[in-house]
TrEMBL record:
Lineage: Eukaryota, Metazoa, Chordata, Craniata, Vertebrata
Domain of life of the source: Eukaryota
Domain Cadherin: residue ranges: 13-98, 99-203
One annotated GO biological process: anatomical structure morphogenesis
InterPro entries, per database record: Cadherin-like_dom (IPR002126), Cadherin-like_sf (IPR015919), Cadherin_CS (IPR020894), Protocadherin/Cadherin-CA (IPR050174)
Gene Ontology molecular-function annotations: calcium ion binding
UniProt subcellular location: Cell membrane
Protein name as it appears in the record: Cadherin domain-containing protein
Pfam families: Cadherin
GO cellular component: plasma membrane
Gene3D superfamilies: Cadherins
Keyword Cell membrane: yes
Keywords recorded for this protein, A-Z: Calcium, Cell adhesion, Cell membrane, Glycoprotein, Membrane, Repeat, Signal, Transmembrane, Transmembrane helix
Amino acid sequence: YYIYGSTASSCRSVDLDVAHNTIQTYKLNPTDHFKLNVVSRPDGTKYIEMVLHTSLDREKQEEHKLTLTAFDGGNPQKSGSVKINVVVLDANDNAPVFSQAVYRVTVSENASRGTVILTVSATDNDKGANEEIMYSFSQHTDSASSLFNMDPRTGEMTVIGLLDYEKAKHYEIDIEATDKGGLTDTSKVLIEVTDLNDNAPVISIISLSNPIPEDSAPDTVIAMLNIKDLDSGKNGQVKCLISETGLFLASLKPLGPIFVFGVSVLLLLTHYSQSS
Ligand SMILES: [Ca+2]
Ligand SMILES: [Ca+2]
Ligand SMILES: [Ca+2]
Ligand SMILES: [Ca+2]
């Protein structure tokens, strides 16, 4: 018998004797999920129904082995029995469950396309199509979906665009696991992009006095320079120095983020570090 939900099945047994030697009682074993109903027809014949009386859970027990025994009223008492094997079909009563509520991952900027950064996974206690899971980004995901791809079958997340630490340092992506019956679970992927030294320092002149009078006093400011490096940490720290050729009269002093290029009696090399 294959049972799905609360279907009942009925059985009929026949005893060829008459009067008190005919079938008197029926017994079912075990009775935790099924019981017997004896139904009398108007013509006096009887039949029994095997009825479900507590709900079945395939995830707990997929098969129920029952024995139905019929006893007659004779002396000695005779009995006949039949084995009933009930197989419980699966219903989609479990949603997928992600292994983590939040996945955190770091990836280097400029990571090549196709780089696998993470594999998410969800499990589903059902069977067959009811446990088959598809992974996807949730609907309201912005630009991240043009940079990352989710393999719907394996849950593997790969880089498909150009990650630029200087443009975006992290992404938050909502993901979904959906079984074939439409039940879902959601989770979150937090992606942190790490910096690479992919930017050179850029020098820009803020102001410049040129030519300069010969009687300029020492420490007269000739030029103000701004030096920028878009990278972070050590990658963004700059060291500034004047090449020694022909600049024996110049000095360089840091002034906040600005360098002052001035006249000096001695060649003075200074450096300045900035971190963005
Ligand atoms: Ca199920
Ligand atoms: Ca399911
Ligand atoms: Ca970059
Ligand atoms: Ca960088």
